[in-house]
Automatic annotation (TrEMBL):
UniProt entry tagged with the keyword Signal: yes
A cellular component annotation (GO) from this entry: mitochondrion
Keywords carried by this UniProt record: Signal
SUPFAM superfamilies found in the cross-reference section: HAD-like
Similarity section: Belongs to the HAD-like hydrolase superfamily.
Top-level taxon of origin: Eukaryota
Gene Ontology biological process terms from the UniProt entry: glycerophospholipid biosynthetic process
Stored InterPro entries: CDP-alcohol_PTase-I, HAD-like_sf, HAD-SF_hydro_IIA, HAD-SF_hydro_IIA_CECR5, HAD_sf
Name assigned to this protein: Haloacid dehalogenase-like hydrolase domain-containing 5
């Protein structure tokens, strides 16, 4: 075999699994992707917008489901590129999400984190929606609680009203929610967020709320209360270019470790969500074309990672029909809208460009996607 010159960026939910069930086509796809020694024949990185889990746990879960060894450094969670935002790593950050939020924040390099629950315990009078949780006596006011210097949104939390209220308190009080301020500061404290997916596909027949829905609530409340726009210092996860730059770097390292001498020139991104997977892959492809002409800076304002010039020439988007996207269902972001424009499910900060929602290829499932790519690359199935 000649060494591969292409690699796969595979989404997880709706492509390989639905909830905790593996999609049968994923098992067939991996039978094609591994050789007789059980090693991958081409570099593969799993790019998910999930964030409420540890990287090594996700790798173990995938290894078990796919029957193929997946290393932690093949998994990119929505917040993985936050490792690059080192200027915030020593700041005292309020972290929102669920699952192992402290461990995730620390693994990303943040040394000084406060969870929403810790903040709630420190200032019990802040959390007032749930009558059951209101303090029965008047607690003493704390003045020994160090100011919070930024907000880290890793994924959707459990009690939205508590998180929305306390994040707002921190932004409006410039990080001192015990004191309050007469006028809210603007610009506000730095906010880093990962995963802007409005919807995602689990076992249910209809899509579920994603972290993008939580962000939509926070942005709307901030706008309503202050009359100003909530701004992000960094937005990661798909469709952010930063996530694809990060994935490209991991693909390159994987090829080097395997001793594949030829540079990886083509990436194939397989996903089920036109708004994150297709849009992101196409945006990255556009970025690669502009980079060749030395004009990539025009495409993305701020937060762009200065990396070595990439050997990657192209990134093709492949849309599967096993998740959020379905060609028949109205409202599934499929073409069946009777010619009407489907609603824009993307995030406010990613300008809507309808052309970027058009996948390079639409196939039934991930197994068909792998067959299509092997065929295009002249590889034997």
């Amino acid at each position: 075999f000649s060494p591969p010159t292409f690699g796969f960026l595979l989404d997880i939910d709706g492509v390989l699994v639905r909830g905790h069930r593996v999609i049968p086509a994923a098992l067939e796809a991996f039978r094609r992707l591994v050789n007789s020694q059980g090693q991958l024949r081409v570099p593969v990185v799993f790019v998910t917008n999930a964030g409420n889990i540890l990287q090594h746990s996700k790798a173990q879960e995938l290894s078990a489901l796919l029957g193929c060894k997946v290393d932690p450094d093949q998994v990119i969670l929505s917040h993985s590129p936050m490792k690059l935002f080192s200027q915030y790593h020593d700041k005292r950050m309020l972290v929102s999400g669920q699952g192992p939020v402290m461990e995730n924040a620390q693994a990303l390099g943040f040394q000084n984190v406060v969870t929403v629950d810790e903040l709630r315990m420190a200032f019990p009078v802040l959390d007032m929606v749930d009558l059951e949780r209101r303090p029965k006596t008047t607690p003493l006011l704390r003045n020994d609680f160090p100011a919070i210097e930024g907000v880290l949104l890793l994924g959707e939390p459990i009690r939205w009203e508590t998180s929305l209220q306390l994040i707002m308190d921190v932004l409006l009080s410039n990080g001192n929610p015990g004191t309050g301020l007469a006028t809210a500061p603007y610009p506000h404290l730095p906010v880093l967020a990962s995963n802007v997916d409005l919807l995602w596909m689990a076992e249910a027949k209809m899509p579920r709320f994603g972290h993008g829905t939580f962000l939509l609530c926070l942005e709307t409340i901030y706008q309503k209360v202050t009359g100003k726009e909530l701004r992000y210092e960094g937005l990661m996860g798909k469709p952010s270019i930063l996530t694809y730059q990060y994935a490209e770097d991991l693909i390159r390292q994987q090829a080097e470790r395997r001793g594949w001498a030829a540079p990886i020139q083509k990436l194939y991104a397989v996903g089920d969500n036109p708004m994150s997977d297709v849009y992101g892959a196409n945006l990255f492809h556009q970025y690669l074309q502009m980079e060749k002409r030395g004009r990539a800076e025009e495409l993305v304002a701020g937060g762009l990672w200065k990396q070595r010039p990439s050997a990657t020439q192209s990134c093709a988007s492949i849309l599967v029909c096993t998740g959020v996207y379905s060609p028949q269902k109205p409202g599934s972001m499929g073409p069946a809208h009777g010619g009407a424009e489907p609603p824009f499910h993307g995030h406010r900060d990613f300008n809507f460009s309808p052309g970027l929602m058009e996948a390079s290829h639409v196939v039934n499932d991930v197994n068909e996607a792998v067959q299509l790519v092997f065929h295009q690359e002249g590889w034997t199935l």
